[in-house]
Amino acid sequence: MHVSRLREVATAILARPDEIMLEIGAGGELLVARLRAVLAAMLLLLPLVNALAGGGVRETMIGLGGALFVNIGAQLWLVLARRKRQFRWLPFASAAFHVSTTTLVLAVLASQHLPAGLNSLIVWCGYVLAILLTALRSDGRVTLFAGALAVLEYAVLAVVLMGSATSPEQLLSTDYGAVTPGSQGQRIVLLVMFTLITAMVVYRMQRLVEMSGTDGLTRLPNRTWLLHRIPRLFESVRQDGDSLTLALIDVDHFKRINDLHGHHAGDRALRHVVTVLRELSEPGEWLARIGGQEFVLVLRKPMGTAWERVDAIRRALGERPFEPERGAEALPLSFSAGLAGFPHEGSDLSRLLRRADNCVQQAKLQGRNRVIARDG
Fold it and tell me: Pick the residue with more confidence: 60 or 269?
C-alpha cells in the first residue's frame, strides 16, 4: 500500500464519522450495552460453578465481587446507551470500561498467583473482545483508543508484576506455564494487530456506508444521508429555537437536454448546477440530491430569508450558462423551487417534501424559473 494511501486511510479512521455512521454507531453502542448486560448476568454463574467444583471460599468471593461490579456497570451503560447520541463520550468511556475491567481482573488474579495474572489466556481475551466490539460503534477513533489503552495497561501490568517477582520460581506455574518477557511481548504485539485489523474493518464499513449515502454522479449526499441527518437538525432547531426551511429544487427542462444532447451532456449539466449551488452555499446550509434532477437545500433560516437566498441562487445560475460540449452554443439553465418551513408546515421530512413539491408544481404551472414559498 502506497504511503499516500496509508495516509488517506489513517485520516479517514481518525476523522469524526458522518451522520449515517454516527447513527449506526449509536445503534451499535446500544447493541453492545445489551450484550454486555446478558454476558454480565452469565458471569454470576461462574462463582457458583467454582464453589460447586470445590474452589476456595476466598477465590469464590473475589469472583462474586467482580461479577457484581460488572453487572452494576453493565446496567449503568445500558441506561446511558438508550439515550442515543446524547453523550458523545459514551463510546470511549464504555470501551475504557471493558479494557480496564480486564486489567483489574488480571491484577486480582496476580495477587493470588502471579503467573495467573499474566498467562491467563481466557481473561486476556477480554482485551481482544473489547477491541473487536468497537467495530459495532463504527468509529475508528474508538477502536484506536481501546487498542492503545489495552496495550498501555497490559504493558504496565506486565512490567510491574514481573518486576515484583523476588525469585524466578514465582514466574513458574504448573497450570499457567512460565512467564517470560518474550511471551508478554507477543501478547502486546497481538493486541496491536487486533487493533489494526478492527480499525480496517471500521474503515471498510465507513466506505461502504459512504457509498450508500453519496450520489455517485455529483458526490453530493443522497436521500439516505438526508433521512439520517434531518432528524438531528430538527432536534437542534427545537432546542435552539431557530428556524429551518427546506427548498426542493427541480432543474427546468432537464429531459430536453438529455433528448437533444445526450445523457452525457445531461450528467455534465447536473454537475454544472451542483458546482454553482456549492459555490453559493453558506454555513448552515446542506445540499443533497434526492432524484434525477431534484435537489434539496436545507437552510437554517426563516422562510423569508430562505426565499431570498434561493432566489439569488436561481438568478446566479441563470448568469452561468452551460456548454453541452466544447465549442457548442451555451445553454441557459434554470430551476423551479418550492419551500417548506419546519415545524409550522411539517414536523417530518416526508411532509416537508410534499409541501415543497406542491410549491414546485405551482412554479411549473406559472412558467418555471421561479421560487414559490406557499402552496396555496
Answer: 269
Rounded Cα–Cα distance for residues 227 and 243 (Å): 19
- DSSP symbol at 16: P
- Sequence letter at residue 303: M
Which of 257, 281, 277 shows the shortest CA–CA distance to 267?
257
Q: What are the strands, taking DSSP E only, across the chain?
A: 244-251, 285-289, 294-299, 335-342, 371-372
**Is 1's pLDDT higher than 60?**
no
Instruction: Please tell me the distance from the alpha carbon of residue 309 to that of residue 339, in angstroms, as a whole number.
Output: 11
Instruction: Work out the number of other CB atoms within 10 angstroms of the CB of residue 142.
Output: 28
Burial class (CB in 10 A: 0-12, 13-18, 19+), 178: exposed
pLDDT tens, position by position, 266-315: 999 999 999 999 998 888 889 999 988 999 999 999 999 999 999 999 99
Contact by Cβ (8 Å): 276, 320: yes
Distance CA 165, CA 184 (A): 15
DSSP codes of every residue in 78-101: HHHHTSTTS-TTHHHHHHHHHHHH
Instruction: Supply 175's cell numbers.
Output: 497450570
Which range is least confidently modeled, 3-7, 122-126, 280-284, 297-301?
A: 3-7
Q: What residues form DSSP beta bridges with 338?
A: 248, 372
For residue 136, the model assigns a pLDDT of 86
Q: What is the DSSP letter of 292?
A: S
Distance (Å, whole) CA 68 – CA 41: 9
Residues 6+ apart with CB under 8 A from 56: none
Model confidence, pTM: 0.66
Given this model, what pLDDT does residue 327 score?
A: 65
Output the nine-digit C-alpha cell for 12.
479517514
- Closest by Cα among 49, 83, 43 to 65: 43
Q: Torsions phi, psi of 372, nearest 5?
A: -115, 135
What letters, b where the CB count within 10 A reaches 16 and e where it falls short, cover 309-336? bbeebbeebeeeebebeeeeeebebebb
